Amino acid sequence: MKTRAQWLAMLLVIASCARGPGPGGPDISPEILSEVNRIRAIDNHAHPVRFVSEGTPDREFDALPVENMEPWSDPLKLRSDNPDVLRAWQMLWNYPYNDSDATHMREWKQHKQRASQQKAAEYPEWVLDKAGIDVMLANRVHMGPSIQPPRFRWVPYVDALLFPLDNSLLAARNSDRKAFFADEDSLRRQYLQDSGVHAPPKSLDEYLRLVVTPVLERHKQGGAVAEKFEAAYLRPLSFEKAERAAAEKVYANYVGRGTPPDDEYKTLQDFLFRFIASECGRLGMAVHFHTGFGGGSYFDIRGTNPLLLESLFDDPELRRTKFVMVHGGWPFTREITALLTKPNAYLDYSVQALVFPPTTIAPTLHEWLVWVPEKVLFGTDAYPWSDQMGWEEALWIAATRGREALAIALTQMMRDGDISKDRAIELARMVLRENARNLYALPE
Ligand SMILES: [Zn+2]
After folding, report:
1. What average pLDDT does this structure show over 88-96?
2. Residues with CB in 5 Å of ion ligand 1
3. The pLDDT of residue 17
4. Which domains does the chain have, with CATH numbers?
């Protein structure tokens, strides 16, 4: 039995060890936070929406728009009553209310529309300024007049090139996949057309020469700094080494006729993936992957474990290619930490600050920063999630909360005596800006 005094002493010890937000908020050095907030960031991953004055709204912010999926249990912070959305409205549009009342929101939506019409083609850059973003990597099918360098850098999608055969077996898996493969089929038709090819080439060699390489070269000429794979929405990330002869056979057997069985098709996809990754290395473009959790009730979480990518990082023929594991791989954040020692592996923490509070993300950032800090990149995943949370609001939330998470991690490292204040500020600059600048060779 413990005495009352012993219990009290124990409680005091527990209280003094407790981390995270108490009544006074998280342990965060105001000086570090203000330094972190001053740095004009490079956002490694986002989906900015083009300004359109009237007519068809822009749909090219994603190759696989997630709006038509079956219902799932939304994470709390992606629901419309997330108080951060209200704060974003207040910060971006001077929203005068303290509630998300539908009439208030409707009224203020017109105000938001007027603001964007006034700024017209300069509107997307104005949004970046509001969130302290200098350069945003734009995941888009095409760029557009208001989304241009130097403030926006292109990251096009190339999953469509991995699936050149009949995809009906893959599409039959569930309704989400059905919608996704329809989107990929239409993007691939567009890629063929852009390459001046009017029917799928008869041999793999021709497909690589007349379609795959020209698409990648056009992207490079169009200013792309990386190619994006949303493959995790379409198949597991286990792109194993495949023999060219085996891939040629599958291609020749099924192109334009019949439906390839899953195992044969996988061989071809694996080969194509490594071919594309190697071409990206030759052309000086990074390869971006969606890693970790993804949207939808059918999303294959196990298939998105970043450890499945290890054999790619270890392929001597792919060492010239720089791979970026987008979203930081949650829930596999420890696995992804270990992968940072591969010389060609990088990660960003986009989306995390949209779905978790800063105190939850900070320990993960801490672990990455004591491991290989020069491979850790800031990112937001600003995306038009809903009517209330457009890419603008998502950007403001993820940038603000993502910076707080970084400041909490750096404060903790300082308190632990691991780093000086100067080093903390240097690490902040690396994560928010310099690591990305080095990776993509962007100008100062
Ligand atoms: Zn994204």
Report:
1. 93
2. 381
3. 35
4. 28-440 (3.20.20.140)
